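Researcher: Please predict.
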Amino acid sequence: MTTQHELIDRLIELYRKYYREEVGHLAEHYPQEQQSLHVDYADVFRLDPEIADDLINHPEKMLRHFEEALALFDLPIQVDLSDAHVRVYNLPESLDVSEVSRHNNIGRLLDVRGQVSKVSKVKPKVVEASFECQRCGTITDVPQVGENFQEPHQCQGCERQGPFELEPSESEWINHQYMRLQQPPERTSGGNAQSVDVHLQNDLTDEVQAGDRVTLTGTLDIEVPGSEQTTTFDTEIDGCSVVREESDYEDIGVDKHLAEIKRIANGERGDPYELLVDSINPKHQGDETVKLAIALQLFGGWAHEHPDGSRDRGDSHILLLGDPGCGKSTFLRAVDQLAPRSTYASGKGASKSGMTAAAVPDEFGDREWGLEAGALVLADGGMACVDEIDKMQPDAVSSMHGALESQQVHVNKAGINATLNARTALLAAGNPENGRFESFRPKAEQIDLSPTLMSRFDLMFMVSDNPDEDRDREVIDHMIRSRRAAAKHTLGGEMTDDERDRVEPAISPDVLRAYIAHAKETCFPILEDGEAAQRLREYFVSFRNANQDDDNPVPITYRQEQAIERLAEASARVRLSDTVELEDVERAVDLVETSMRQVGYDPETDQFDVDMIETGQSKSQRERRERLLDWIEENNGVTSTALVEDAADQGLDPDAVEDDVRTLLDDGRIYELDGVLRVT
């Protein structure tokens, strides 16, 4: 049996053999810049498997020995490291939050992976309180153990029982903080994500933020209740070290699919873009353009950082709009299941904190304020799917504006001032304001979203429900066959080749997830100054100047140019290429122009008008409404009937004028009194 003295000698040998430089660096920078030595568990095991095993099973006692050995290490300079910490990391087995067996692991050292959902404020905690006797002035030091504050039983000088007064400046304090580690959204199958609370102290505090993905090493402890007697205990982890995930896509299993990924990217299985289209929501018939756009959104461009510190996002945001029952939500559910990282939320009832982040009263400790991550922050590095975005609360909508463009969420409340990453691509779906699109009104005006939010989307597509006999027959046939194939699959029956093609994606979900992860991790395409860049320049300049006259609407802005570059980079990633080629630019241009034609095209003028997206109304609408306001003002009021008749005489569409009147009334620019319209 190893004695304590022998154990200390072995640990000093560990530091001498593997960490001589690290200990020297700690000594030079202790305690202001560095307070801990980080030790890899693999080195401990390599030195002595028995010590490594004891570290897992008796971490509290063993870590005290590790720190004692560090204090006794022969240093080249005179520094006292008796209060320095040893932080062990990289245990042989790393568990998800849901895999932690609470009753079997109490008192053991664990590696737990998860996502930080909440963090409390950093607060001082007294570990040794100094009390002054108010009778004789003697100072008595009392170590503080547990959550209950301990006072002296009697004075060490006069031996009386007080009264005592705490002397804060003489007491010993540390920083401490709580965080909640939860199962990441993509690893949660229904219900609430499992979580565990973590207690952090000293230099581990203020190292993580809500939304971070981490591997935590710590001891699973029980929370001792107060005076109430109970046999049931809550558990928490006493943190030893915290390591942020460096890779955005751990546990995807790229290596085992790498050969197949390269076959797809090289075109050995056919056109990779067609294969992707056939792999996105295969049970939905049609809408191939939407499927291609979503495929490129999954691969994404990459963020570019400028020397001045500014950053251009690489993720594309897509909005699907259409009549109810057109299958918009099926795209969101398919992407949520397919994306390597994703969150799914419904805009109906969603709050500001639910979408971004907020400082909220929390249940940690003394009900202090904490930082809670919302859907966009939790999806950092992946996809956020938001259904019924048109029903979102106004404060939630306004909070998303900056998050979608800068991909950061700022929180400043209750003494918490934090900036959280929200580097996510948003796929959203919504319905027109009156349930279905009205044919005589521009579609952009019928979208009940603020123009500021709409302008953040790179692509917007209409998933319409217009009757068409041939198409309807094809869709119904596909639905019947798909459901029959799904029934056979559920019952374990044999499917025909046709049925298998209808329900099975061309690229299996496991391979596609690995494909996306590999492309994001290894490919950073650049648009070189060549044929592809020249095509983009020519297209943008010619399109921007398509509406010849100065008084005509602007057809496209620089936002669309950036959208094209992001989509072209994503297209290059599909081929695992580091160069954006001409075909990538062409593919991106086609998607942007298709989107503009559906949302940013004004049938009244037969021209593209980006104002329909940027401001919510076309230039022709704006001019017509100003004209109506002038008529009402010139006539000192006019009835709706007379206004429509006058407009019809001027060659304006009566239905459009009636809609303009409703809009002006809703906006408060005119009012109606005794049947007469007047300008406010």
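Model: The chain is about 35% helix and 20% strand.
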